[in-house]
């Protein structure tokens, strides 16, 4: 994936190609190279959170013939994602073919049912990730490997940074894919031009209704008129995400939750940070250099790939090369 190049029919490393390599795989590419329907038969389990709320976890168990000490791959989805996101299903197929167990814990409110507490989830939710991973660790005998996609990857890196050496007792390795590790740079980028018209509108199209349902659950939680006036993620975070989760405002939230400043100190759990340099959400100029990260961090920054895209194969393409490449790296740390 470090040398990734998009197939000829989606090739290009500029901003237009970055958008195409983002949108097409999410909507039209297969999750495996083989043609036909490619569903994943998850088993859902509801977990009670430490504060009495709940999350839903979707599991895909390995075949009964798999070794007892087989690895467990845990995937944290991106903003407004789920176990049905194209990348989640692609990793599910890879893990099952490899003989690994696989699980996707949903951030609160992302499993199809509104959670109970005022809080939802955010880009630096390392405490949420900590109790989830420790529960997996207690229940699973084999190695635990963790992937975070986009927002979920930034939160995963923040977990590894906060835990320091203790993270190694929980996870063998972590991967952050297309993650906005500089939240301010990414937040401003997604709020401009084509990004604002397409991606911001898409995210707010699901986030605002959820916030209104949360306001009905907890009257007075925030100001409805200010929410409805929000036209980008900066505004939304200022009225909803930041105050509900204990931040002063959007600037405070983005500054305290960005994983980039903490990369230099990472020297315990191995971490792979993968970002395409034509990702429309994440400016290449904000990506870290090797001199800005600690010895535990591996950087993959291919010129192409878009945002959680990395399509491959003949038209209409597939997204199986992403879990294949990341899976090879993870296997080295089992």
Explain how this protein is built:
By secondary structure, the protein is α/β, with parallel strands linked by helices. The protein folds into 2 domains: 8-181 and 264-331, 3-Layer(aba) Sandwich (Rossmann fold); 183-257, no CATH class. The chain has helices at 15-27, 86-98, 126-139, 151-163, 183-190, 193-217, 224-229, 233-244, 250-257, 321-331; strands spanning 43-48, 54-60, 72-76, 101-105, 144-149, 173-177, 271-274, 297-300. The protein has an 8-stranded mixed sheet with strand order 1-2-4-3-5-6-7-8, sandwiched between helices. β3 (72-76), α2 and β4 form a beta-alpha-beta unit. The two termini are 20 Å apart.
Structure summary:
The chain is α/β, with parallel strands linked by helices and 334 residues long. The protein has helices at 15-27, 86-98, 126-139, 151-163, 183-190, 193-217, 224-229, 233-244, 250-257, 321-331; strands at 43-48, 54-60, 72-76, 101-105, 144-149, 173-177, 271-274, 297-300.
